[in-house]
Model the fold of this input.
Amino acid sequence: MALKPTRVTIPGGDSVAYFMNETAERGCVVIWDTSLTGLGGLDDPNAVVKLPTDSGGTPVGVLMNDVVNKDLTRTHLNAHKDEVQVNGKVAVLKKGTVHTNRIANGVSPVAGDSAYYTTAGVFTTAVVAGALVGKFTSAKDADGYVVVDVRL
Done:
């Protein structure tokens, strides 16, 4: 589990307008994917997000679903885990508070530290140009979770 259910979404601070074409665990930061397009229809086919492979890219928000690649003829998506199939629409939090364990190894934030993202969309306190996501509002608890106030 990368997100605890204790979260706050500011009205208008989340969106389901994005597609994701790779597997990912909820609680990580996603960025714009400018190399691919999603599955169109009436939606914007260019609204595609991905996990960052380095510290470059514009952060879109925090992924709120697990993105999986399952054979749907054999099993179904687990609604209790809020799973979404690859190439499907995902929920992204842009403004609000999340309780996550997606923290870079060796990082011990304290309340008030700026929250940046790094490789694989994990949070860090290391200053990375263009990668500011918000602020940490707590230190790590005994289980390795922190509270992050996301402002994008």
Observations:
- DSSP finds no helices and 13 strands in the chain.
